[in-house]
Amino acid sequence: MECERFISEKLLLAHGELDRAPDLQTHLAQCVGCRADVEEMREVARRYREASSEAMPAALRERILAIPPLPRRPPMWQRAWPAVAAAVLLAVLAFLLFGPSERRAPDLTANLPLEWAPSATAPAPMAEEPAPISLPAFGIDDRLRALKERIDIPKENEW
Amino acid sequence: MQDLVRGLQAGEARAYERLVREYGDRIHRFVRRMVGDQQADDVTQEAFARIHRSIASYVPGGTFDSWLFTIANNLCMDVLRRKRRERTLEEAREPSVVSRDPAEQRELQEAILRAVDRLPDDLKQVFLLREEAGVPFKEIARILGCPLNTALGRMHYAMEHLRASLKAFRD
Q: Helix, strand, or coil here: A152?
């Protein structure tokens, strides 16, 4: 390679990967060495392609064709449906077990004679007020005293 | 090409046969030049097995060819790394292509294939991805995880080697 200019561009041009390169075109028009470079690169590529034409051995082709096909994967929606069904079932169960609490038990007195039915107007008797819980007073002094009683503190002359 | 990919993803035997028919020779030649005759068949078979296994996760990004040759290239690089550890440089450079049936090869073709075989691995990789696999340079750079200029630089040196070999053969 006599001319060291436009090395990358010449490679791209020789392989048909250069769209527009006005500078290179101008240079090529003047530089015999670069024109020869491009031509020789094309020749190397062509010679190689001519030389490299051997086919895969038949035995190898057979071996490759004998590779067992992968099991066909079902589409995503088919693979996902058991999970979706389980989720829906769980949601329904959760609704039935822990659903809104406003639901009332059926009114069993609806069909009773009027005199048996509980009066809607009579107020229910009030339950007695629960007695307030009285906690024993137990201050900090009581607790200190109780602690002292549990600890056997030696007197001064016993040290 | 999309129907081929869809067929492969659906596990259609006919699509797989088409894949082998359309790409088998090219992938085998690529692998053969990269790793040599001895391991070419096994690596090619493994490449197709991987293509087969991975096709379900193929997402159209670059070209399908790039995706196929990325798999083949990765396998070749694994083999070459192992070879580097196991073999001497001289053994690695032993011509591999002409040994199968040299009588059928014309001299010039032999010369260029030998020259390709003697290229350093990183230059050979770029050369084969471009000339054997037909992957554009931008895609090659993406496959190799290097800047475009690095890929072009390697191709430049590969071309220099090969042009010199051709010239020496003619002289």
A: coil
Which of A54, A57, A67 has the CB atom closest to B52's CB atom? A67
Q: ipTM of the assembly? A: 0.80
Q: List pLDDT tens digits, range B46-79.
A: 999 999 888 888 887 778 999 999 999 999 999 9
CB pairs under 8 A between A and B: 103
- The reported pLDDT for the residue numbered A120 is 52
Q: How far is CA B28 from CA A61, B52, B135, B141, B143, in A?
A: 10, 16, 16, 22, 19
What's the rounded Cα separation, in Å, for the pair B146 and A71?
37
Q: Give the pLDDT confidence of A142-156 residue by residue, as tens digits.
A: 777 777 777 666 555
State whether residue B52 sits within 8 Å of chain A by CB: yes
CATH of the domain at B94: 1.10.1740.10
Nearest to A52 by CA among B102, B155, B118, B113: B113
Among residues B80, B76, B56, B58, the alpha carbon closest in space to that of B67 is found at B58
**Cβ contact B20:B52 at 8 Å:** no
